[in-house]
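Bug #77: duplicate submission created two jobs. Keeping one. Sequence:
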Amino acid sequence: MECNVGTTERIIRVAAGIVIILAGLAYRNWWGIVGLAPLITGAIAYCPVSKLLGVNTCKPREERTD
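Kept job's structure:
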């Protein structure tokens, strides 16, 4: 997979994912599971939706292949 999520966006995605998961736990609601999507896409630096839309926030020097 090629990187299509830049560093700043990764930080935002991971933080948002954690906040959503914690809110789900705090309110004892299963919607906290939704927080896994931004958490995982931020952690692996790849988002399939961004790929479909042609969005790439990863700088050329950040590109990596896993």
